[in-house]
Amino acid sequence: MNNSNNQANEPPKIAALYCRLSKNECRDNESNSITNQKIILEKAAIINGYENTQFFIDDGYSGTDFAHPALQQLENAIEAGYICAVIVKDISRLGRDYLKVGYYVEQLFLKYNVRFIAVTGDIDSNTNTSDFLPLYSVMDEWYAKDISRKVRMMYQSKIAKGIPVGLPVYGYMKDCNNPKFWIPEPETAKIVQYIYELAVLGYGSEQIAKQLEQERILTPLHYCISKGYNRKAENADLYGWKSSSVSQILQRQEYCGDILNMKTYTNSFKDKKRRANPVEKMSIIKNVHEPIIDRHLWEYVQQKRENKKNSRRKSGKQPLFSGFLRCGDCGSNMHFGFNQANPSIEFFRCSNYVGNRGGTCPDTHYVRVDFLKKKVLRELNTLIDFAKNNWDLFSEMVTQKEQIENKNQSVALSAEHKPLQTRLKEITSLLARLYEDKITGGVDDETFVLLTSEFKKEREQIKMRTQTIKEILQRSNCIEYGLSYFKKLINQQDKIANLTREDLQKYIDSIAIYTTEEKGENHRQRIEVYYQYIGLFDIKSLSID
User: Fold this and answer.
1) What is the CATH classification number for the domain harbouring 84?
2) pLDDT digits (tens, 9 = 90+) for 180-190
3) Among positive and negative, which fits the CA dihedral 534, 538, 540, 543?
4) Do the domain assignments include residue 164?
5) Which of 5, 250, 255, 294 has the most C-beta neighbours closer than 10 Å?
6) Full-prediction pTM beyond 0.90?
7) Of 270, 290, 310, which one is at a domain's C-terminal end?
8) Domain span at residue 287?
9) 432 Cβ partners below 8 Å, 6+ apart?
10) Shortest CA distance to 213 belongs to which of 243, 233, 255, 189?
11) Are residues 194 and 331 in the same domain?
12) Does 445 map to a domain?
């Protein structure tokens, strides 16, 4: 027996019987099943005189990835000197990357004097029958590459038909009549709608997560487990919602009824790391399944979250208006300051003021905090009081204002779009002419590279701007949602006695500060307050001084 070669004072070495089966391989194929591999390997071990054997099994692991638990365990055992032989059904069971297979057979096994046997390939390192091993490994890698290509083609076919290639997102389930598509799942769809409602009311992701936890709503993971799905739960807290989970739900476009495929990619069939695809490279097909969230509302929430993200600050000890103020002329942020001689005098001024290094704005747009606080508090209370007592009139005023603004914006964007298209045609013509000049020798290589690079850069910028204009023009008016949620807010609001950052985050989107026109007792300064949900609203239109 081969095991008798061990010295009497050493434990007998092990003949490792290694089995592997990929998820992509058909499990109904008995020739490659783990059970069949074990039978073949046990028989091969007996024929070759190995009695002390141990199975190392990687079930559900790709042959192009060698980070398998059982294979790693086997490698460690070899390096520790416990293994005398490795037996596999065929060379592809060890792997489908010829470089890595070569490392094991030509380096690791030889270094530790480990015999290697591939039964169906008639490969045995003890009898010099492994001369064709490199060829077998290359063929196995070609096979893996071909399988990867076919799988990719299958996915591309589904993508072209608007079929989702992933599992349904939280809130949806597969349609029983057509499992290729999704339908809303009654229980979780209501939770998704509730999350969006809280977001519109001004709740942040962490606040929503706490609210769901307080109401003892199962997390998406534990909901799947409760329905019998095979999911592993590392967190034992059934209701421990995380802000990251809420954020993912709030940004998923699938809830509008759209299908988003190709959200991630890999560099090659050997690379298992998934990388996020930019939006422009995704496949997005709209209105495929029944929406859970109306598209108007989804777009409104995205805009709200973006505005809130821009004004969010980590510290709660910052100045009252920090993050809310911008210069009305140049659009730059306003920076906080205080009077050195009298620190109680706090103010904001344009960060882009020409007096600062590199600034371009001609005026400081100086505004004192105490003045601004009184003005915003007075106007906010006036607005809330008027809207609560004259809702029909107020909503009509806001709607008319929005319609006028949308019309003006549409005219301006349409006027911008036409010259962009003209310039795009010019660039295409200029590029074609450059290539002709390059071929005929009319332009040198350096000039050709420089000009083509500049033209292509400009072309991409125009395409991006054109797409933005198109999306804005196609975007429907969301004011009805803004008004409905603004009404919910003010109906719960009493008169504000002392303005806080929480009040600002709830009601104010931004405040534009313009140049002071008059000072002293006749102090006059244009200040525009942009409110959440309803945008810019002129308090003077309410006949309030």
Assistant:
1) 3.40.50.1390
2) 888 999 999 99
3) negative
4) no
5) 255
6) no
7) 310
8) 172-310
9) none
10) 243
11) no
12) yes
What is the model's pLDDT at position 347?
94
Same domain for 327 and 459, yes or no, is: yes
Same domain, 228 and 374: no
Exposure class string for 490-502: b at 16+ Cβ within 10 A, else e: beebeebeebebe
The answer to whether 145 touches 137, Cβ cutoff 8 Å, is: no
Rounded CA separation 413/301 (Å): 23
pLDDT at 8: 47
Cα 330 from Cα 324, distance rounded (Å): 15
Of 276, 194, 308, 172, nearest to 241 by C-alpha is 194
Q: Are 306 and 349 in the same domain? A: no
**The predicted structure's pLDDT at residue 304:** 76
Question: In sequence order, which ranges of 104-202 are alpha helices (DSSP H)?
Answer: 109-111, 133-160, 186-200
Given this model, what pLDDT does residue 296 score? 80
Ranges under pLDDT 70 in the chain: 1-11, 24-32, 63, 98, 128-162, 230-236, 262-275, 279-281, 307-317, 406, 471-478, 518-523, 543-545
Token reading at 69: 């638990």
Q: In this predicted structure, what is the pLDDT of residue 453?
A: 85
SS3 235: coil
Residues 6+ apart with CB under 8 A from 173: 182, 183, 184, 185
- Residue-by-residue DSSP string for 194-218: HHHHHHHTT--HHHHHHHHHHTTPP
- Alpha-carbon dihedral of residues 439, 443, 446, 451, nearest 10 degrees? -100
- Per-residue pLDDT at 315: 40
Given a contact cutoff of 8 angstroms between Cβ atoms, the answer to whether 363 and 329 are in contact is yes
Is residue 155 included in any domain, yes or no? no
Structurally, how many domains does the chain consist of?
A: 3
The residues near 45 (Cβ < 8 Å, ≥ 6 apart) are 15, 17, 51, 53, 87
CA distances to 50, 96, 436, 480, 508 from 117, rounded to whole Å, are 12, 16, 62, 73, 73
- Residue 527 has what pLDDT? 93
Determine the pLDDT at residue 263. 64
Q: Are residues 34 and 96 in the same domain?
A: yes
Q: Is-contact 134 155, C-beta < 8 A?
A: no
Strands of 356-463, DSSP E: 367-368
Report pLDDT for 255. 93
Helix (H, G, I), strand (E, B) or coil at 346: strand
Instruction: Clarify whether residues 324 and 391 are in a common domain.
Output: yes
Q: What is the DSSP letter of 361?
A: B
Handedness of CA 59, 60, 64, 66 (dihedral sign): negative
- Rounded to the nearest 10 degrees, the angle between the axes of helix 295-311 and helix 186-200 is 50
Residue-level pLDDT at 476: 47
| Mean pLDDT (the chain, rounded) | 81
pLDDT at 316: 45
